[in-house]
UniProtKB/TrEMBL annotation, chain A:
This is Signal peptidase subunit 3. Keywords: Endoplasmic reticulum, Membrane, Signal-anchor, Transmembrane, Transmembrane helix. Residues 222-249 have a biased composition (Basic and acidic residues). The keyword Disulfide bond does not apply. The keyword Endoplasmic reticulum applies. The lineage of its organism: Eukaryota, Fungi, Dikarya, Ascomycota, Pezizomycotina.
TrEMBL record, chain B:
Component of the signal peptidase complex (SPC) which catalyzes the cleavage of N-terminal signal sequences from nascent proteins as they are translocated into the lumen of the endoplasmic reticulum. Dispensable for SPC enzymatic activity. Its main location: endoplasmic reticulum. It comes from Periconia digitata. This is Signal peptidase complex subunit 1. GO terms for cellular component: signal peptidase complex.
Amino acid sequence: MHSALVRIQNVFGFFTTVAFSVAAVIALSTFIHPQNPSSSIALNNVQVVNGRPHYYSYKKEEYAHIKFDLDADLSSLFNWNTKQVFLYLKAVYPSTKRGEPQSEAVIWDAILPGAAAPWNQNHYIHPTPKTQSKLKSSKKSKDKAASPYPRGIIKISNQRPKYQITDITGKLQNRTDVRLELGWNVQPWVGALLWTNSHDFGTWKALEGGQSEPFDFPVKGKKTDLRTAKGKEGHRLMAGEEQPVRKSG
Amino acid sequence: MADQLLDQVRDAVEGQIDFEGQKLAELITTVLLGGVGILAFIVGFMTQDIKLSLYIGLAGTALTFLAVVPPWPFYNKNPEGWLPPHKGASTVQINVDGQKVG
């Protein structure tokens, strides 16, 4: 502490220690926030159609197009250390061969921002329910990005998937025991990434009703244009344009 | 002239403080930074606002730098003087391996 340079080093050195300690305490403080997430997932409609992985492909594959209803209360996942929650819904179905693990494929996902997260175009905006849309229409012009529900509450029905799924074999029709499963990844400001609570852990309760009833993939239907929903990340930087453009549809 | 100027600049940059001042600077660093860390967590937790924690922590650190790094006068209240010069025969006895050298 004799000269100014030594004092700078000393103060900065202790600052890093304090910053790390405070970050560690913040990370640990999330464990005393009780979590009691609950959800109910239901299949709305499932169709299997022929398709190809991309336009120039000769390979024909069967694609499942799953519409679903989701009613979830994940508000307890949001505490002061939550930056964002990546929420996803996957279809889980057993393999046709014994001893092989089950297949899991994501059909829909959303990025739910925490309270302190700055605005981002990829954040999920909850659709306004039809019964409320008339009431809110006047308000909507002012506050376009606001969700009709509080943070972490999802109530969507007859939702189109964002991704239609296929199997590694290319065959999906008549597969049985398919379930829809909700999963998430809590991304904190500081600390560890946390995935779906499958078991109770202290004040954290396991996810209630994270699975749908089992259903079967139907026989392949006529080839129709089954549209998927575009997420907010449908924004892409187009060549020759400065601003990201949201693709229509 | 140039030498004087360079000496002044060097003194200002080095910012030397005395022994008591060093002890005090060390204490102020520990107390201030530690307190700021605790305060940042408590205020952030109470308001459930992590950005507030961040800003309190950074502001407190800036304050600590300001308080400790420059050679403030209160760090130089107990300057250590030189020993008085002695002429001719030394009054100080220096022994090296039993032989008087000083």
